[in-house]
Amino acid sequence: MKISLNWIKKYVDVSVTDDELVRLIGARLVEVEGVIDEAEKYNNIYIVEVTSAEKIPDTHLTLCQINVGKKETVQVVCGAPNVREGMLAAWIAPGAIVPASIHEDTPFVIGKRKMLNKYESNGMLAGADELDFGDDHSGIVEIEPGTAKPGDLLKDVFELDDKILEIENKSLTHRPDCFGIIGFSREVAGILGESFNYEYQDTTLRLGGELKVAILNTNICERYTAVVLQKHGEIKKKYLSWMDTILSKSGMKPISPIVDVTNYLMLLTGQPLHAFDYDKFVKVGGKMEPEINVRLARDKEKIVLLDDTEVILNENDIVICSGEKPVALAGAMGGKSTMIDENTRNIIIESATFSLYNLRKTQMAHGIFSEAITRFTKGQPPYQCLKVAEAAAEMLKDGYIVTAAVDSRKKIEKPIEVKISVNEINALLGTFYEKKLIVKTLTNVGFKVENSGDALKVIAPLWRTDIHIKEDIIEEVGRLLGYDNIQPILPLHSTADSDEMLSMKTKVRDIMASFGANEVLTYSFVSGKLLEKAGLNLKQSYRIINSISPELQYIRQSIVPSLLDKAYMNQKLPVDKFAVFEINKTYTKKNTVDQEGVPFEDMKMGFVLAERKGQGTAYYKAKLYAEKLLEALNLRVDFLPLSGESAAISAERLPFEPRRSALVSICGLDSDKPGEVIGVVGEFKNSVRRNFKLGDYLAGFELDFAKIVEHYQPTKKVDIRPVEDKRDLTIETDKSYNELLKEIKKVLEKNNLEAEIYPLAIYQPETIKHISVHLEFKEKINDTLMQELEKIK
Amino acid sequence: MDELTKLKQELKNLNAEYAKIKDIPAEKRGEFGRELNAKKMALLDKIMKAEEAQFDAEVKPLDITAPCAPNEPLPELYSTLMGSRHPLMVELDRVIEIYKLMGFTAVESRQLDDEYHMFDSLNFAKEHPARDGYDTFRTEEGFIPPAHTSTMQNRVLNRFKHKLDEGKEIAVVVPGRVYRNEDVDATHEHTFYQCEGVYVSPDCNMGQMLGILREFFEKYYGQKLNIRTQPGYFPFTEPSLEFMIEKPKSLGGKKGDFLEMLGCGMIHPNVLKMAGIDPQKYHGFAWGGGIDRLVMLRYGLKDVRHFEAANLNFLRNFK
How far apart (Å, rounded) are the C-alpha atoms in residues A265 and A273? Predict the structure, then answer.
């Protein structure tokens, strides 16, 4: 929304600089997105009198002498058909910028020219379009005699040295009153600590006459008022007016006297108006007199709008009908069949309010974003409908007389009262405002305040439909007096609880980075294709119905597939080797919902490592990462065989190749008994690798992070005795590594010994495997133990 | 005969069936063709799966308990020099750390929620235009990947209201990932991070809210800061404000250069009521702001798309 500061100043005595005013509006009313300074826009443009005008033979041009307020007249050639001797016109002096081009990359500068090789022309006589007052290019603008004299600056006469505020509409969603200059100015007065008084003139409108209105559905239209205006004279749009300039500055443009009046009043009051051609309206309805019916549209009903588009309506749209036939899409746009044109004689002016909920849907369904619907969808209050209709009639009285007026409303709204105390206001704001100041602040913007002692009864004005509770009053006081005047202080309060999940994430992030791994973040939304590539079941993923693209349609069930996707991208960069991880939430339909009725969520840690030219078996590196990470958290784990595929298998296991992967299991206290499985580590299925276009050296893991948190041991028992003996041991065996360790431990146990066992190498020249380990003892051992150990097969 | 050979034979037989179409009466040909096509599609799908299974079967099993494969060296972790932590997560940790020092308990936000927590419990009237302003995603079931961390307000109020009975306050921050249906460009992401704050006590006020927020940003930037506010509108706070800080010197800020950091306000009595907290006895304030922009400002980043791209050439700069 664009708001002219000069227009505000017509209603408010502004005692501060413009910059300060803009700052205060920003701090106390609404976000000001920008300020367009128009101070330079109309420089060197003067009002002039055409003292002689001679047609140049065989051309459309006129050779003019103009009085620019100096002794000497100036010669200018003009191509407009309406130039004539004696008129007052606007003259863009040589060297001045044509205002309409001021925001172009190279603004157009008028100079001194030779026309037809012989007529000198200085500057130009300007049309409305060149002055940026609409699109009219049919002739030059004419200034009303007596309102200015030759040599006056155009910007002085029409108050064009202005600043235009660009307002962020969203931050006024709850303030329909501020979508009119009166409402906005009232707030500005309140902010400056001044009272504001704008009264509509007493109504002289007599209801009655030949016009019927019926509202056929409930809750669609709180109030519908209309006046019928009969033409009795000509309003000839002849002179450039202040209204033309203000419409333009507010982002609209002058069109015709009737439309201009409706637009002007909307900008002034916030109440949109619509004008119908009376005679067309009656004809469409097929009756002798107009019969306005407001109703919900029927499904698939059609209407052709003013802009020639045909709209197929739905049962949410509200339509204005002449008898049975829709003639306007209420609140959004008028219909073609009753639009006013140059032949229009009599008119109906509508001033009404409609359900903002219906209109919001209409706006979305049909993509109509007019100035009118922008205001209606904030919920314009019904209190001023009839008065604004009357104001329109008054402005058009030179050409029209009122022959009928109607006011159909569901109920007379009662003012809202809120009881509050001065103490309550100060307590919530943290201020020490006195009662007198609070009362004045509220009354300045139209509230009535009755008070006895500390207690206040605050009565909201009819335009403040957003006021309901104490906090709304507190907001008014805090805001108008300036939140920036509140003293920031720190409360004294108790200590925080720790959050184990967040602390663990920090810990794991630090450990993994020290292991040379890279933390990444990837989207929670993935494509169906990605899930399928990883071998996951699409049906177990929650699907977004309004996704941005098919790439972002499903909520992921596990982290690893996203990492595989990014692994390919990183190899392409190229990054030759890397280990990436992400800790984030996943959801699957299989987990159903919790007691709140929302899906159970899992915190997972995904890990993928890949090397372009990697040699050897990637599984063991991924396993090492899992082992070392968990060791750093004082967790010992076993690696258990991954059983074959089954329907019950959880999503994170699906991409992994069962013959080259293991379940990660927390060691139970009893070493023979497997503990709880917390995830899976391994290489991926051939098909998965192929689908992601990744090479052989590829492995990863996915761990249930909540289980890590659950099992985490902040400290572990340490044996501080020094190492007394170290031995290396090589055994020929066909056992697995783990089975061999168990055998070694059995022998140690039998001898009442304990040792830390470290792997050294696995050597397999042909069929026989040799496993070498390093043993560290906290006591001296004898050679017979070693002989016994060497006997293990 | 293995499964795949059998399926391929079946396909051959099925293809032969197509020849019969000329013997079928014209009016039934369509139906015949459709049935045949459906069978063929199902069969092709089976063949693809069987081929995949055969492909996957070509692998040798490993000793999953061993430290390495036979004749291979023991694996090693990569050099610490290669490692990195995600700048967004590191920054979020710093934010949480400062709030913790100030006595705020941290609770991570959900990433899939419902209409009740996202809107109803936050005093959004049904069909209120403000609901549209959040550009929310929805799943088939009507669940919502939340558009703001305020989706956790009702939960944390409920979870910590026992503290009020114990004569303590509710002081919680909620970091988390949120989503908006927006086109992605250098300054917009559909996936980003926010941090919410919630504070409830018998006598808290707006001065305290401004005090806590100023203290946070002064700690975060390690310098004194000027703050500024602007009226805002959120259904779940009344009054509502936008909170700004003067751009810190460390970020190249000049006097009068203000940055919008977050939205805040006094918790609407209806929000307290819906969490079973008596608004006659207690007041609260809440705030929420984006984390991505804090990180961009701190590191001088111009493109928000870096964060979720997982590009190691970018991420490895953040040790």
Answer: 8
